[in-house]
Specification:
Elements (H helix, E strand, L loop, with lengths): L2 H31 L2 E2 L6 E2 L1 H8 L3 H32 L7 H13 L2 H11 L6 H8 L11 H29 L3 H9 L4 H29 L3 H5 L13 H11 L3 H25 L5
Amino acid sequence: MPFRTRSAYAFLAPYLLVFATFWLWPIINSFLISFQNTRVNPWKFSLASNWGRLFGDPAFYNALYNTLIILVIQVPVMIALATVMAVLLNSPLLKARPLFRFAFFAPVVVGEVAYAAVFRLMFSIDFGIVNKLIGAVGIAPVSWFDNANAAMALVIIAVTWRWAGYNAIIILAGLQSIPEDVYEAATLDRVSKVQQFFHITLPLLKPIVLFCVVLSVIGTMQLFTEPFLITNRGGPGGGTETLGLLLYRQGFTSLNFGYASAIAYTIAALAIAISLFNLWVGREPK
């Protein structure tokens, strides 16, 4: 092996050691644990105790259903909203654009516990501002934390509020990479702004939007914070329990590490499958 190659590996060795110890080995070990019954001492190999249980567990199917509902509703709404926000932020007519960009990105850096507490106060049935506003227009107050559908809507609203601005900044970067000559030529051809958006902007933004969709899919499959903190650990009655929350409950409440590992690998497999499907749908035609 040449000296330069040995030197390169020598410099990489500390990182590779940390990577293998704290990332690679835990992944391999958790996969092995998913095939063991961790409710007995010592642990024993048992395929049915984890993977067999997984496909017959009503709690798993409930969590999978809730996760997919959030995925199907929240991700498209958030990406559409982020695209509109990015277009508005890119408009030369908008004054103080850096301030607005920071304001839209700010929810990402807000502490999760703090923002969850604010949402619980805002949507309180007794003194929440949201119920006061809808009551002002003659709509009965909504019990956001006692009704499963309302709680699910609350989770979707919270996740959208937190991540729409983040995706808008990514899409904004894509917008700024589109050459102005394209729009100038379209304007000379008397193409309206609406037609430019649908026939120029969106096609050129397709890779960026697809990137945001894939990131959002992966994030949604792991969703934990909002159901845990806002709707009180997936309540009411498991109505907002996601796969991430079920994994936590099995691993750190029930201490069933084998079943939790099986759930974790199922989440990873589903996230990969859905992301690959999105990439296949959004691929460029040959």
